[in-house]
C-alpha cells in the first residue's frame, strides 16, 4: 500500500502504470485514457506538486474551493474540471471552469450557458447518467438521457463532449464491469442519435480497470494520487455547503 507521505510523483506514476496496463489488457489504444486528478479537499500546494510531475487536468467538487484554487494557481496551465453536483446558486462560479461533468438538469445547463464568458471557448460538458437506480441519487435515468443531451447540445456556450457516471460501488469486478457497460451503452446510444461525443468519464481509484475495460476515456482519480481524504469534517462528507 502507498502512504500519503509517498511523493505525489511516484503515486501519479503508479496510477499511469495502472491505466496503461489496463489499456493493454483490454485492447484499448495506448494513450486513449486521460487521467483527471480529483483534488477536492487537497490544498493548492498538493495540486502544485502534482502539476510539477506533469499532471494538467484537475477535478474539483465545491465551487468556492475551485474558485480559490484557480486564483492561487492562475499562472499554471491547468485544465479545470468541475466534477461535483452543481447547485443552481453556484453556476456563476462553475461557468469559469474549463469543463463541467455533472450536468443532470437542463435548468443548470441553461444557467451555465447564460453565464459563460462569451470571450472564452464554450464550457465543455458531460451529462451525468445514473445506471444504479435507487442506489444513487445523481444523474438522470438512461431513458431520460437522450432528451437532456439533445437540449444541452443546442446551447451555444456549452459543448457537449460526453457522458459521466458514478455507479454505486460494487464488490466484484464483473459487477463493476456490468455497471460501466450500462454507461457505455447510454453513451453509444447518444452517438447513434448523431451526437459527436468523445468523452466517457467514469472510473475512480478502486474501479478504474473495470471502467477502462468498458471504454472509459477519462478516469477521475483522487485517493490513489493524493492519499485518503480522512479529515472527519472534510467537505466531501457533507451533502451541501
Ligand atoms: C472524489 C471523486 C472522485 C475520485 O474518487 P477516489 O475514489 O478518491 O479516486 C471521482 N469522481 C468524483 C465525482 C469525485 O467526487
Short description:
This protein is α/β, with parallel strands linked by helices and 241 residues long. 37% of the residues lie in helices and 16% in strands.
Describe this structure in words.
By secondary structure, this protein is α/β, with parallel strands linked by helices. The protein has one domain (5-226): TIM Barrel, CATH 3.20.20. 37% of the residues lie in helices and 16% in strands. It is built from 9 helices and 8 strands. An 8-stranded parallel sheet has the order 7-6-5-4-3-2-1-8. Helix 6 links the parallel strand 5 (123-128) and strand 6 (158-164). The longest helix has 20 residues, at 173-192. The two termini are 32 Å apart. The model is unreliable at 1-5 and 232-241 (pLDDT under 50). Bound molecules: pyridoxal-5'-phosphate. Pyridoxal-5'-phosphate (PLP) binds next to strand 8 and helix 9.
Small-molecule components bound: pyridoxal-5'-phosphate
Strand content: 15-25%
User: How would a textbook summarize the main sheet?
Assistant: 8 strands, parallel
Strand order of the largest sheet: 7-6-5-4-3-2-1-8
At CATH level 2, the architecture is Alpha-Beta Barrel
What separation lies between the terminal Cα atoms?
32 Å
Structural class: alpha/beta
Q: For the record, what CATH class applies?
A: Alpha Beta
Helix-strand string: HEHEHEHEHEHEHEHEH
The CATH superfamily is known as: Alanine racemase
| Mean pLDDT score | 94
Secondary structure layout plus pairing:
Blueprint: H1 8-25, E1 34-38, H2 44-52, E2 57-60, H3 63-72, E3 79-82, H4 91-94, E4 99-103, H5 106-115, E5 123-128, H6 145-153, E6 158-164, H7 173-192, E7 199-201, H8 208-213, E8 218-221, H9 223-226
Parallel strand pairs: 1-2, 1-8, 2-3, 3-4, 4-5, 5-6, 6-7
The protein binds pyridoxal-5'-phosphate (PLP).
Amino acid at each position: 500500500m502507498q502512504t500519503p507521505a509517498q511523493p505525489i510523483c511516484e503515486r501519479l506514476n503508479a496510477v499511469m502504470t495502472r491505466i496503461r496496463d489496463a489499456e493493454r489488457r483490454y485492447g484499448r489504444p495506448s494513450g486513449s485514457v486521460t487521467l483527471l486528478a480529483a483534488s477536492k479537499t487537497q490544498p493548492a500546494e498538493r495540486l502544485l506538486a502534482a502539476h510539477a510531475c506533469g499532471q494538467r487536468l484537475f477535478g474539483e467538487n465545491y465551487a468556492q474551493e475551485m474558485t480559490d484554487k484557480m486564483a492561487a494557481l492562475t499562472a499554471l496551465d491547468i485544465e479545470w474540471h468541475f466534477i461535483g453536483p452543481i447547485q443552481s446558486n453556484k453556476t456563476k462560479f462553475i461557468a469559469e471552469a474549463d469543463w463541467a461533468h455533472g450536468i443532470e438538469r437542463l435548468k443548470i445547463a441553461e444557467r451555465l450557458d447564460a453565464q459563460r464568458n462569451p470571450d472564452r471557448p464554450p464550457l465543455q460538458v458531460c451529462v451525468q447518467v445514473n445506471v444504479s437506480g435507487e442506489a444513487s441519487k445523481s444523474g438522470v435515468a438512461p431513458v431520460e438521457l437522450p432528451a437532456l443531451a439533445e437540449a444541452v447540445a443546442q446551447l451555444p456556450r456549452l459543448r457537449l463532449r460526453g457522458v459521466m457516471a458514478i455507479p454505486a460501488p460494487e464488490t466484484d469486478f464483473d459487477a463493476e464491469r456490468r455497471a460501466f457497460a450500462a454507461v457505455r451503452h447510454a453513451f453509444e446510444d447518444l452517438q447513434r442519435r448523431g451526437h459527436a461525443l468523445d468523452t466517457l468519464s467514469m472510473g475512480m481509484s478502486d474501479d478504474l480497470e473495470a471502467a477502462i475495460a468498458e471504454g472509459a476515456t477519462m478516469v477521475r482519480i483522487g485517493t490513489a494520487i493524493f492519499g485518503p481524504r480522512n479529515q472527519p469534517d472534510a467537505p466531501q462528507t457533507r451533502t451541501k455547503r
